[in-house]
Amino acid sequence: MLSSIAVAAGGACGALARYFVSQRLNGEIPWGTFCVNIFGSFLLGWYVVNEGREILDSLYAAGFLGALTTFSTLQFEVVTLYKKDKRKVLFYLVLTYTLGLIAAWTGFLAAAKI
One MF term from GO for this chain (predicted)? Predict the structure, then answer.
């Protein structure tokens, strides 16, 4: 029960953070979603080194980072971008997935050295 509450609390904070960043940065290209996904990938990579505390895993990893970084928002914005400018979609997707993997790996390596 406590883990469920932790996921809900973390999820609410992560969703609000994503919303506010997207409101400030989204324009012709959805840079807000891009930024939260890259930053969230880094944080999740960092967190993997220190996982194993049930409540913190629920609050931070499943809740906050799960809501902050969202695959469904990415896909929605890719389809929307495709409708507006087909040429930018491939650039956006390659940049998002490549930098997301690099950010997650960098976070993991950085946390492992501490």
Answer: metal ion binding
